[in-house]
Amino acid sequence: MSAVFGRAALRQVAGARSFSSSPAPQATLRELEMRIKSVGNIGKITKSMKMVAASRLARAQNSMKYAKAYGAANNAVFEQSEAAKSEAKVEKILYIVTSSDRGLCGGIHSSVAKAAKKDIEQGEGVGKEVTIVALGDKPKQQLVRGSVGNDVALSFNQIGRAVPTFNDALAIADKIESEGINFDKIKVVYNKFVTVISYEAAFIEIYSNKALAASPSFAAYEVEGDELSGDLASFSMANAIYAGLVEGYASEISARRNAMENASKNAEEMISKLQMSFNRMRQAAITNELVDIITGASAL
Amino acid sequence: MSWRGTLTFNKYISIAARATRSALKEEQRAIADKRGTVTLKWQTWKEGKGTVAEWVVPPVEEAHK
């Protein structure tokens, strides 16, 4: 009883200080009930999404383990031939931003998009000719609308539905080459799987055919003909894309699981709070009715 | 007749992979074929404007009975 009268009385007393143009409507029992129901439904959905993500995580982590082995083997050639100290000038950089199409996974997509933008505008991309290839609708949207929009050359979607296969990476690398994109260096931007609850944006660097050929220790490899180093560069690109896609997929699954877990927890909290105020209001209404009946009876 | 000049190295090895997959026995082949399907779509962009997205590998139309 005091809850209902108290609030209205307070507002009248403090009426002069009220800043809202229309007073806040008092939620009726009916409205509260509907809100509780809808929050409950949302909680069910987020809980089931969390379960799905948790079940996919194990497989994603397993694939990631093997994909990383590929990526590391790839890197061996670049390290051994010291391609980082190559005499070839790096003037054109290709950024391949890997993420996916779907949302509800926390800050996954903006993490890669931001890291790419930062490197382009303040890092290694300053003063160089930059091309961007976006893998996934979400990073594509962020990049095309941003300050680097004009550098986007290609984008792919239908990514992130299942564990990425090497065939996908081959198809992407093939399209990049056949579209005639020129580059001296490639940086694959992806989300590195740090732990089950955290990820961070990272880069994989791949050197072009030219850069590799001009590397100081490359001569140690006895290569017959130019074709082999060209093939190696193409294959390295596919390898790096594969590693980035798979690790990005694993990070995304774990991020989605965490996000849905938080959402479910918040939904539960909200339901208990709403339930409390619903009960209070119900009891207040009953008390009012009782008071009416009693005063009415005493008037007879 | 070489594949050089017409195909990229990646296209070449993906074709070789496909041939290898089709040489497998039925049971293993079913599992391997799932790894072989590419369901990507792509589009080119120029100055912030993109073309319509197209399939990288166009889906084969199912024959209607």
From TrEMBL, chain A:
GO cellular component, one term: proton-transporting ATP synthase complex
Location relative to the cell: Mitochondrion inner membrane
InterPro entries given in the database record: ATP_synth_F1_ATPase_gsu (IPR035968), ATP_synth_F1_gsu (IPR000131), ATP_synth_F1_gsu_CS (IPR023632)
MF GO annotations: proton-transporting ATP synthase activity, rotational mechanism
Cleaved signal peptide residues: none
Major location (coarse): mitochondrion
Coiled coil, from the record: 250-277
Complex formation: F-type ATPases have 2 components, CF(1) - the catalytic core - and CF(0) - the membrane proton channel. CF(1) and CF(0) have multiple subunits.
Record family assignment: Belongs to the ATPase gamma chain family.
Protein name (database record): ATP synthase subunit gamma
Protein species of origin: Leucosporidium creatinivorum
UniProtKB/TrEMBL annotation, chain B:
Protein name: Mitochondrial ATP synthase epsilon chain-domain-containing protein
Species this protein is from: Leucosporidium creatinivorum
GO cellular component: mitochondrial inner membrane; proton-transporting ATP synthase complex
Matches recorded under InterPro entries: ATP_synth_F1_esu_mt, ATP_synth_F1_esu_sf_mt
Alphabetical list of CDD domains matching this protein: F1-ATPase_epsilon
A Pfam family reported for this protein in Swiss-Prot or TrEMBL: ATP-synt_Eps
GO terms, molecular function: proton-transporting ATP synthase activity, rotational mechanism
Domain of life of the organism encoding this protein: Eukaryota
Family per record: Belongs to the eukaryotic ATPase epsilon family.
